[in-house]
Amino acid sequence: MAFLSWRNEYRVGVEQIDEEHRYLFDLINAFHDTHVGGTNRSALGQILNRLVHYAEQHFRHEEAIMKAEAYPAFVEHCALHEDLYLTIFRLSEELAAGSLRVDMETVRFIRSWLVTHIVQHDLQFSDYVARRPKPAAPDET
Fold first, then answer.
1. Chain mean position to CA 112
2. What span, in angstroms and rounded, lies between the C-alpha atoms of 69 and 65?
3. Number of structural domains in the chain
4. Domain named Hemerythrin-like: which ranges (predicted)?
């Protein structure tokens, strides 16, 4: 069983965002599996670096979608992304410097880092998109 399993309750309803979230889950599972497998710090560092870079890319994609949808909490959500990115970036830097001891608490933190953001913030965007009136279809007369 995966350390972090995708569930429908995490779906934002925007396919690109959901696919990218699922890939972030895969990266976190890879980090967990590598840690549990006792692999060296270098391998953990590589996975964490991929997580950092992909998270940054994902946040930019998500922000572009939110901006296009005129999401009212766009600025606040961008600030949350910046904080999330800096948190995971610092972990990556600490691991590379040898000052981070990776234990299960670290792995759980990384899982929570993503899931909490999705559940508490991204799903608010999902609700906004679902409640927004859809543009009228052009008349076919």
1. 10
2. 6
3. 1
4. 13-122
